[in-house]
Amino acid sequence: MEYGSVQEHELENIDFNLPEDCKENSIILNGKRNDSFKIHIGLPRWNNPEWKGKIYPTNAKDSELLSYYSANYNCIELNATWYKIPSLQNIHSWKNLVKQNENFLFCPKMIKDVTHTNSLPNNKNLSDYFIDTMRNFDNYLGAIFIQLNETFAPTRKNELFSYLKTLPNDIPFFLEVRHPQWFSDKNINKELLNFLEDNRIGIIITDTAGRRDAVHMSLTIPKTLIRFAGNSLHASDYARIDDWVERINFWMNNGTEEIYFFIHMPNEMLLPELTIYLIDKLNETCGLNIKRPQLINDTPQLSLF
Predict the structure, then answer these.
(1) Tell me: the pLDDT tens digits for 287-304?
(2) Distance between CA atoms of residues 50 and 35, nearest Å
(3) CB-neighbour burial class of residue 247 (10 A; exposed 0-12, middle 13-18, buried 19+)
(4) Which of 45, 56, 196, 232 would give a disulfide with 60, using CB separation of 3.0 to 4.6 Å?
(5) HSE-up of 283 (CA within 13 Å, CB side)?
(6) 143 pLDDT exceeds 80?
(7) Is residue 16 part of a domain?
(8) Where are the alpha helices (DSSP H) in 143-211?
């Protein structure tokens, strides 16, 4: 994720502390622990050959990587759909490759031909086709996320709201806004959050070094999707994960139903290490039993399997 990226020497001067919860979160959450709480942890892609010999067998075929990925993670941020709508054949193939993990979820990103053009409502037919195609993931379909670029300003809010009202209500949707004014203008921010709450659409929290305004800590539904941009195991990555674990624990104990947590970093080779750290901390702090990715030649932690 290039959004909000900074040079390594700049990291020491950034305040990575998570802001306090938006006060309206207490309205979204009921204040009671949800016994059916779910958390989905994943990466932005599965087809990384660098993970052969790390979390994939050394001799793994490229066509098998999704299967090995789904043995280590329970979710994928499906960025491939931003470029192209997959064929039904591809979708059925992917479902077959993850069938060993019945809890696995694909979270597709809305195709850019809808979100990165001059008019969202004019692309309704394409949006509908995209959504109908994604339905073929069946029980493996998680949330669909809609990402707007940094130039999509609140001056286009009527266009945005008009489009979002057309979304079906039987699939979870999350919106990622990036233009700074969505966060800096309190009235606009409140209007956006109220609209999303009224229409049961989640808002994405993007934790990236160079855009701390995007770590807004607002909930519009009792679910959230977090996109965490690490910095290749810089010391700050671990401190930030610790903070997130504490916040997730608080949310879990106050009524959050479901969380998606996707980790990005420039050196993708190191992604498994940070996800293992996250999962171990969640299991320890939150009393969860999330299966951790298994590094090749690691001794399995039997309590987690």
Answers:
(1) 999 999 999 976 444 333
(2) 38
(3) buried
(4) 56
(5) 15
(6) yes
(7) no
(8) 157-164, 181-184, 186-198
